[in-house]
Amino acid sequence: YSRQILSRLTTSTIRSRCFASTLVLAEQIEGGKLAPVTLNTLTAAAQLKQDIDCVIFGTEKTNETANELKKFTNCNIKKILLAENAGFKGLLSESVTPVLLDIQKKNNYTHILGGSSTFAKGVLPRLAALLDVQPISDVTAVIDKSQYSRFIYAGNAILKLKSNDPVQIITVRGTAFEAAKQGTGSGEAQIEKVNSTPNNDLSEFVSRQVQQSERPELASARIIFSGGRALKSKENFKLLYDLADLFPGQATVGASRAAVDAGYCANDLQIGQTGKIVAPDLYVAIGISGAIQHIAGMKDSKVIVAINKDADSPIFAIADYGLTGDLFKVLPELTEKLKKK
Ligand code: FAD
Question: Start and end of every Electron transfer flavoprotein alpha/beta-subunit N-terminal domain (predicted)?
Answer without folding.
Answer: 22-209
